[in-house]
Amino acid sequence: MDVLERTDRGLWLRVVAAAAVWAVASWVNGWLWTWLLGDALGLDLASPLPGAVHFFLYDTVKILLLLTGLMFVVGLLRASLDLDRARSYLAGRGLFLGLVLAVVLGAVTPFCSCSSIPLFIGFVAAGIPLSITLTFLVASPLVSEIAAIMIGDQFGWDIAAAYVAAGSIVALAIGFTFSRFDLDRWVEDLVHATRIGQLRAAGRTPTWADRVRAATEESRDILRSVWKWVLLGVGIGAAIHGWVPADFFAEIAGPDNPFAVVVVTVAAVPLYVNGAGVVPIAEALWAKGMSLGTVMAFIMSAIALSIPAAVLLRRVLKPPLLALYFGSVTIGIIAVGYLVNAIAG
Fold first, then answer.
1. What phi, psi does 72 have (nearest 5°)?
2. Of 66, 67, 209, 316, which one has the fewest beta carbons inside 10 Å?
3. Predicted confidence (pLDDT) per residue in 273-310, tens digit
4. What's the per-residue H, E or C state across 30-65?
5. Bridge partners, 187 (sequence order)
6. Long-range Cβ contacts of 164-167 (<8 Å, 24+ apart)
7. Per-residue pLDDT tens for 103-139?
C-alpha cells in the first residue's frame, strides 16, 4: 500500500510539474516572439514579412500547446467520468438543452476557429452527439465575447446584443439541422480510435496511473497525427495575414450593391483575424457607408470562417461533412446580414 501511495504521489507531482511547464510556455509564447523579432532582431512587425513570421511562430506554438493541454485534460476527464451516465443525462433532457449548452460553452470560451478544434476532437471522441459538438464548433468563434465587447463599445450595446443573439441562433439552427441526419460516418476514424476509448472498452475501473497514461498517450497520438496540418494551416494564415484592404471592401460592398453581404462574407474568409482585430476594420467600413448587416456579416465571416481552420478540420472531418459545415455557416452568416439590413434599413 505504501508503494502504491508513493507511486500515486509521484505521478501527481509529475502531472503538476507538467501543468506548470505548460502554463509557463503558454505565457512566454505571448511575448517571446515579439521580443525576439522586434526587440532583439530589430524587425518592424507592422511590415508584411516580419508580421507574417511573427504570426506563424506565435499561432503555431499557441495551437500546439492548446492541442496538447486540452486533449490531455479532456482525455483525463473522459477516463475518469462515467460518460454513459453523462450521455444518458443529456439524452433524458432532450436535444435542445444539449445544443443550448454547446452554444453557451462556445460563447464563453475565448477560442478562434482553429483553437476550438482540440475541444471539438475531445467531445467527439467522448461520444457526445456530433450535432452538439458541431454546434460548439460554430458558436466558439462566431459568438466571440471579445468581439461583443468591442462592438458594444464602438457600435452600441444594442448592436452587440444583436450580434450575440444572431450568432447563437445560427449555431443552434445548424446544430438542430445536423441532428436530423446521420453524419458520424463522415468523421475520420482517428477521432474514435483513441486510447481512452480502448481503456474504457476493457471493462474495468481504471486507476489514476491508467488514466494519466492513457490521456498522455492519446494526446501524443493526436499531436503526431495533426501537427503537419497545424503547420500547413497556420502557414496559409500567416501568408495572408494582414491583408485588410478596407477601401477595396468599401468599394465592392457599398450600400448600393444588392450582393454586398455575399461579397463581404466570401471576401472576409482569407483575413483570419480574431474579434479584437476585425472590429476596428468593421468600424472603418461602417464609417465609409457600409450598411450594418453587411458589416456584421463581415465580422462573423472573418472570425468564424478561415482557410487554416478548414485545413485543420480536414484531418478530422471527411470532405462531405467539411463542405456541409462551412456551407451551413456561410449561409447562416449571409442570412444574418440580409436580415439585419432589412430591419435596420
1. -65, -45
2. 209
3. 666 667 777 887 787 778 889 889 988 998 888 777 77
4. HHHHHHHHHHHCCCCCCCHHHHHHHHHHHHHHHHHH
5. 317
6. 164/107, 166/296, 166/300, 166/336, 166/339, 166/340, 167/107, 167/139, 167/142, 167/143, 167/300, 167/336
7. 887 777 656 656 666 667 767 766 678 888 888 888 8
